[in-house]
Amino acid sequence: MVWVNAIIQGVLIGGLYALFAAGLSLIFGVMRLVNIAHGDLIVLAAFLGLVVTTTLGFHPLTALVIVIPVMAILGYVLQYVLLNRTMGSDILPPLLVTFGLSVILQNGLLEAFSADPQKLNAGALETASLPMGSLNIGLLPLLMFVVAVCVIAGLQWIFYNTALGRAFRATSDNAEIAQLMGLNKNHVFSMAMALSLAVVAIAGIFLGTRTSFDPAGGPARLIFGFEAVIIGGLGNLWGTLIGGIILGVAQGIGAQIHPGWQQLAGHCAFLLVLAIRPTGLFPKVSH
Amino acid sequence: MACTLIILATAPLWAGRSDLRFLSEVFLYLGLAYLWNVLAGYAGLVSVGQQAYVGFGGYLLFALAMNISITPIALLPVVGLAGMLIAVPIASLIFRLHGAYFAIGTWVIAEVFRLSAAQISSLGGGSGTSLPVSVVKSIAASRSDRESFSYWAALVVLLLIIGLMFLFLRSRTGLAMTAIRDNELAAESLGINIWRTKFMVYVITAGLTSMLGALIFMQKLRISPDAAFSVNDWTAFVIFIVVIGGIGTLEGPIIGTLLYFLLRETLADLGTAYLMILGATAILIMLLAPKGIWGLVNARFGIELFPMTRRVIFNKD
C-alpha cells in the first residue's frame, strides 16, 4: 500500500512540476528562449506571495489575484527592456543574460528575506484530505493537480483559439514574415513572457503552500521543469504534463526506497528517457 | 613572457604564504576560465555544469589518496584520465540536447554527481570529509614545502592547459572547431565531422577540469558535496570571468580573471551585493560589448598577445 500511496503522491506532485515546466515550454515554443532564471522567478513569486499574505492577511490562493498580474507585468517589462535585445541566432547572449539574472535574483532575495526557509500558510486546506478506500488524498495536492491540468488546457486554448495564440504561432514559425504581416515581434515576445510568468506566479504560490522555500531554491525548480519538458517532448504541452507526472512518480518511488534517492531517481528517469528516446516520449510532429 | 614565467616559477622563494595561496587560486581560476572559454567560446558548447568535473576530480583525489599511499600530486594524471573516461558516456548522452537545453543538461549531470557523492558514506556522505593528516604529510613534511608544491602543481597544470589550447587552436582540428562555431552548416558541407570534433573537445576539457578540481581541493584539504559541486563557485564565476574579459579570445580570460580578483578583494565585504554587481556587469557587457573588454581593446588597437588570427599573404612575383 505504501507503494500505491507513493505513486499517487508522485502523480499529484507531477502536476506542480508541470506548472514549473509549462512557462518554460511556452517561451521556448514561441521564441526559442531558455530562461535560466525561470526557477528563481518561481521562488520570487513565492516570496511575493509571502509579502502579500503577511501584509494584507490574504489566503495564499487569494494572493494570486495580486501575484499573477504583478509577475505578468514583470515578465512583459523584462522581455521588452532586456531580453528582446539578446534575441538572435546566437544562443549565448540570452543564456548568459538570464544566467546573470538568476544570480541577481538569488542574491537579491537573500538580501531581502535572509536564507531562512519560509512557508505560505494555507490554514485548514493544508491538512484537509479526501478518504479514498484505505488511502487519504490530500486536498491541496489534488487541487494543485487540477489547477495544473486547467492551466495547460488554458494555454492550449490560447494557443489554438485566440488572436494572441495565432500571433505566437506565426512568430514562432517565422518571426520576420510575421513582422511583415503587421505583427510587432517585440510585443509578441513580451506577451509570451508575460503569460509564462503568470504561470510562474501560480507555480510559485503552490510551491510555497506545499513546501518551505528559500532564496537558493530556484535552480532545482528550473531543473525539474526542464526535465518534465524534455521527458514529455519539446513543444507538446500535454506531453509536459505527463513528463511532470513521470518525474514525480520516479521521485516518489526513489524516496520510498531510500530518502536520499528522491531527486536522484528523478534525474535517472530523465537520463533514461534521454538515452532511449532523445526527442522525448511525445514529441510534437514538426510542421 | 619568459620573464613573467621566471618570476612566477620562483614565487615560492620571494612571496609570502598568503600571496602564494592567492596566486595559486588565480592560476586555478584562470585554468577553469580557459577551459570554459574553449568549450563555449570556440566549440559552441555552452556548459553550466563544469562543476561536475571539478567536484569529480576533488572527490577522486580524496578517495585515491585515502586508499593508496602515494603522494596526491602523483595522482593528478590518473585523475585527469579518469575525468576523460567518465566524460565519454556523459557526452554521448547529453550531446543529444542542443543549445540552451544542452546547458541545462550539463547542470543535471552535475546534480547527479553531487547527489551521488552525498551517498558515499566512506567519504563523509552529505557533510564531506577532510584529507587525513598522513596523506597531507605525504605531499611534503613541512607546511611551507607543501604550499610550494601545490603552487608549482597549479602553475604546471595551468601552463599545460594554455600550451595544449594554443597548439590545439592552431591545429587543423582547432581551425575546424572555429569554423563550426562561425557557421555549423558551412563547416559540415566542407567535410568537418562536427560531432566528433565537439566530442573530443568536451572529453579533453573534462579531464583537465578534473585535474584542476583535484588541485583546488588538495589545497583546501577538505571536501563536501555542496562545495565540490557548487554551480556558483565553479561555473557562474568562471562564466562571468570569460564574458567580462572577452569570450572566444585567448587574452580575455586573463583580463577577466584579474578583474574578478580585483573586484573580489575590494568588494567582498559587500557579500551578496557583490555577487549582484558581478551578475549585472556580465549582463551589461553581454548587451553592450559582447566581445568583452578584450574585444574592445582589440577593435580599438588591434593588439594580439597570442597570435591566432590567420592572415592572407600575397607573394609578389
Would you mind describing this structure in some detail?
The complex is a heterodimer of chains A (287) and B (317). With 287 residues, chain A is mainly alpha-helical. Chain A has a domain at 12-120 and 137-216. Helices cover 74% and strands 3% of the residues of chain A. The longest helix of chain A has 30 residues, at 2-31. Chain A is globular, with a radius of gyration of 19 Å. Chain B is an all-alpha fold and 317 residues long. In chain B, 75% of the residues lie in helices and 1% in strands. Chain B contains 16 helices and two strands. A two-stranded antiparallel sheet of chain B has the order 1-2. In chain B, helix 8 packs across helix 9, helix 13 (231-245) runs parallel beside helix 15 (272-288) and helix 13 runs parallel beside helix 16 (292-301). The longest helix of chain B is centred in the middle third of the chain and has 28 residues, at 143-170. The interface between A and B is large, with 41 and 40 residues.
Order of helical and strand elements of chain B = HHHHHHEHHHHHEHHHHH
Q: In terms of quaternary structure, what is this?
A: heterodimer
> Widest sheet of chain B: strand order?
1-2
Radius of gyration of chain A: 19 Å
Helix content of chain B: over 70%
Model regions low in confidence, pLDDT < 50 over at least 5 residues of chain B:
none
